[in-house]
């Protein structure tokens, strides 16, 4: 396909890598904040094209991976109730909770359905007014407009049997948390193009100024990522710290204003717990007071659930860029896609899943 192949051209990729090598005079550490970019980096060996002075680390850019264990337990509790149709995207079904997962609930007779859009859940609520329909609204800013539209449409149609279990996380506060951590070694960021397509990139500009780090909005194909890395390196070498937009074919500084309006209509910014990281202030969306009636946590009495992360799983350190998946003693042995210890081994955007699929035989990395 023309508009994919031109961003996967091997000769252009090699030239980009050589241009990066010519620009580097000292070691730099760059974090990509998107699970899709992580998979592209590992799949296409982008990091192996780079000079040794460039270290790529993987950030908390997988929405499934950062969904806390207690949210999974809440989903399982709701899905197990009689009279409930629990709807979710497919990659959430195998994420382990404290004792089981949603796929096992389905196998035991629960009505758990994989959908392709939150509006599919609204349709089910319309068709099954005698049952409670719950949609697991997981994601970063990218999916928030569609999930907000589902609640907006349900209220318009007076679908009192529809609700959302919300686990929306926001990227800029996560970047701030990474930069403020005492063990931080990250000096520049590749920002996720799809998030910025919705929200714009003006919200990253205060971060670049405050922490003196380059942030480059980047796409998801090899050429995109290599160009994003080169822009980071050029800024680092010049002592600059600003936001650049490599992904101009899809992203504008102001973002998608109608989508942002819909998000503000339905959601409000709240503190959010991130799996393996903890609570990050003002790092998530929750339903606004005007839409509180659609809050599944309140409706089903699961708001007070708490759970401790398994100590054996290093996903929190992986999500913060402190460790690589192959540093984990359980990687590929006690933790596999069939029997995962954590979400990073399950999700299509998880770093552990990417390394398991493409680099299972790799030697452990040096920790940062």
- Got a strand count? 11
CATH topology tier name of the domain at 64-170 and 255-299 = Rossmann fold
* CATH fourth-tier homologous superfamily of the domain at 64-170 and 255-299: HypD, alpha/beta domain 2
Q: Give the name of the CATH architecture of the domain at 64-170 and 255-299.
A: 3-Layer(aba) Sandwich
Query: Major β-sheet, in short?
Result: 6 strands, mixed
Uncertain parts: 363-368
Mean pLDDT metric: 93
What percent strand?
15-25%
**Secondary-structure element order, N to C:** HHEHHEHHEHEHEHEHEHHEHEHEEHHH
Brief digest:
The chain has 368 residues and is an alpha/beta fold.
Can you walk through the features of this model?
This protein is α/β, with parallel strands linked by helices and 368 residues long. The chain has a domain at 64-170 and 255-299: Rossmann fold, CATH 3.40.50. It is built from 17 helices and eleven strands. Strands 4-3-5-6-11-10 form a six-stranded mixed beta sheet, sandwiched between helices. Strands 2-1-7-8-9 form a five-stranded parallel beta sheet. Helix 7 (102-107) links the parallel strand 3 and strand 4. The protein is globular, with a radius of gyration of 21 Å. Residues 363-368 have low confidence and may be disordered.
């Amino acid at each position: 396909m023309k508009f994919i192949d031109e961003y996967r051209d091997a000769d252009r990729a090699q030239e980009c890598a050589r241009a990066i090598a010519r620009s580097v005079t000292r070691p730099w550490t760059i974090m990509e904040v998107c699970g899709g970019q992580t998979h592209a980096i590992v799949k296409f060996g982008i990091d192996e094209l780079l000079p040794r002075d460039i270290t790529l680390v993987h950030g908390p850019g997988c929405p499934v991976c950062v969904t806390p264990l207690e949210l999974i337990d809440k989903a399982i509790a709701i899905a197990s109730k009689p009279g409930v149709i629990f709807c979710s995207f497919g990659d959430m079904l195998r994420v382990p909770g404290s004792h089981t997962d949603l796929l096992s609930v389905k196998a035991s007779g629960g009505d758990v359905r994989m959908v392709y859009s939150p509006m599919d859940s609204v349709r089910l609520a319309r068709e099954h007014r005698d049952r409670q329909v719950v949609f697991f609204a997981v994601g970063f800013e990218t999916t928030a407009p569609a999930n907000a539209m589902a609640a907006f449409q349900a209220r318009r149609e007076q679908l009192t049997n529809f609700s959302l279990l919300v686990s929306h996380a926001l990227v800029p506060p996560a970047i701030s948390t990474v930069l403020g951590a005492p063990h931080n070694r990250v000096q520049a960021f590749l920002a996720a193009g799809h998030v910025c397509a919705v929200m714009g990139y003006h919200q990253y500009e205060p971060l670049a100024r405050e922490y003196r780090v380059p942030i480059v909005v980047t796409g998801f194909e090899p050429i995109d990522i290599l160009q994003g890395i080169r822009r980071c390196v050029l800024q680092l070498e010049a002592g600059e710290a600003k936001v650049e937009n490599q992904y101009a074919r899809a992203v504008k500084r102001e973002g998608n204003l109608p989508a942002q309006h819909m998000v503000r209509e339905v959601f409000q910014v709240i503190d959010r717990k991130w799996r393996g990281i903890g609570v990050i202030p003002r790092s998530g969306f929750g339903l606004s007071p005007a839409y509180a009636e659609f809050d599944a946590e309140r409706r089903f009495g699961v708001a007070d659930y708490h759970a401790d992360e398994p100590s054996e799983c290093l996903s929190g350190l992986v999500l913060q860029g402190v460790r690589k998946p192959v540093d984990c003693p359980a990687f590929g042995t006690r933790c596999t896609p069939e029997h995962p210890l954590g979400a990073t081994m399950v999700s299509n955007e998880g770093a552990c899943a990417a390394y398991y699929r493409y680099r299972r035989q790799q030697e452990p990395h040096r920790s940062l």
